[in-house]
Amino acid sequence: MDMGELSARAARGDQDAWRALVRCGTPRLRATARRYGLSATDAEDVCQETWLALARYLPAIREPACVPAWLATTARRQAQRKVMRRDRDQSPPWQTEDATALGGVAPSAEALALRAERNRAFWRAVARMTERRRRLMHLLVLRPELTHAELAVELGVAPGSIGPLRTRSFAELRLRLRAEGVDAADLP
Fold first, then answer.
1. Could you tell me which residue, 121 or 92, shows the higher pLDDT?
2. Is 57 found in the same domain as 7?
């Protein structure tokens, strides 16, 4: 039985099909994650996060035959996020924001004040956006690990609309920030 048919049956609540789907798809997901240089433990985390995303998204899938491609894309994105988090957590001391903790020079009071003002301008601009765009911006800033499918679930929209919504939201944000005298290049 192919994964598309298993997906369709799993979406209808067939637990045997769900188990077969996981058994059939997990080796591919694990291999995808390992191609990003992740440890076995991190690769298993990517697999689990991908299956959890599918469990949330499966009832909304219109084309079960697309599930294998969706799984591969989601696993790649999860693996990329895992690598970025790992790299961010292991950044060299000279790239950390709090240089004083490592014996470096603390940011000046002026730099701290400018950063705080930019942050306030950013959130003021976000506050004036429509509710859906405001929620999207909050999710992007506060939960950057969310996939497009997860964002779609959180916002109650179709997964295909996340990209255009994000593009329009950033365009509006840039306009609002310019109106406040903040250049996008000034943002961290």
1. 121
2. yes
